[in-house]
Here is the input.
Amino acid sequence: MKRFFLFDSHLKSKVEFAPEFENEARIYLCGPTVYDDSHLGHARSAISFDLLRRVLTCLGYKVTFARNITDIDDKILKKMEQSDKSLEEIVAFYSDRYRSDMEALSVLPPTIEPTATGHISQMIELIDRLLTRGAAYQTPNGDIYFDVAKYPQYGLLSGETQEDAQTRVSTEQKRDARDFALWKAAKPLEAVGYDSPFGRGRPGWHLECSAMAQTRLFRRGAEYACDIHGGGSDLFFPHHENEAAQTKCGYGVTLAKYWMHNGFVRIDGRKMSKSLNNSFFVKDALSIFQGEALRFYLMSVHYRAGLNYNYGDLNASKKRLDRIYRLKKRVDIIGEPESAFKEEAIAAMSDDLNISKTLAAIDEMIARSNDALDKNPKDKTAKAALGGNLKLISDLLGVGAQDPYEWFQWGVIETDRREIEKLIASRAAAKANRDYAVADEIREKLSAIGVSVMDLSEKTVWEKL
Ligand SMILES: [Zn+2]
Here is the structure.
């Protein structure tokens, strides 16, 4: 087992990863609230932790990766009011959209995908524990709050104690402005709600992650509910601080041994927000670029740094990825990767996912390999090792797994595709009849529309320039 180092957001320093159970990594990532399409911030978080998971897997860890779906929330209820859709319809629609966006970005599906509504009884049980232990109280209107004053360690995890979002909520019935809702009593005639010993209502957002991590990842006798808890840096406070407080007071367990947070995405230098109308959705980016190109771009900046999204950088990143696919066209066998390259790429990623160092190693490998293949195009041993290198890249980074010719055909619409394939078939027929003038004419016709044709030993392939 190789060593892995990560930057712990709580300690604010790089530490060596030592999971609670040998050779196993239990990861919990806060997932989406499904009331709208996912934006680039969601994508970046999912990709950052997908990288973490892939690297730990390559290092030999058995990774259990939980990413929840928040399917009950005020934002979903608001969406219900604004549309004529039911809660179930909204949740099903946006969960599917989220999963298909993630699939387009080559984010592996989570090992466990718990939903809030699938854990209502566990959340009620957690509230009950907190009430019993005196760490929570119910207000006259039926809401239940976590009593921050009863937990002196509050704020030590993130280093923050106050936040506007938390204090903005009406404080008239709270004992302390920092207290946060565990249960929101249903208002009369409100359609969505769950029965509980403390009245009809619905759980607060922070509560679900504590209940789900405990139910799905904790093991009897463990000190921590999970090894690594992750999310966007905007979640550290208050969301993660609140989760950790609930878990400690309710279950007597520390929620996570390590905390990891990814940086923000800005759009052309501006903070992404709905009010600015520049909240860039994944689906919009996917209409102009392949999912893998978007993935490659979003992960090309270190996960903790801020990323300033802009078209020029995305385009440049896509061209960098093209180089991997161009090399792939020259290689048709998969052997063991070159040990020096493998060592270098894994060592860089094991250093808190040092992507720029990894990408530099890849660029260098591509340049070196192209030179070697230029000199000796038929070297089977070299080709097998290169195939191994490319396989390693796709396992480690989640890019380069596609058919290289299809990669360069992306964006060609179906009718054009049929037309191109018809021309290629006519060209093959002309060649078979030794009618080379006609064959050349067709090749030129294709070239005029930006299609280049290559004759391989068994088939003819094409790509769009
Ligand atoms: Zn969470």
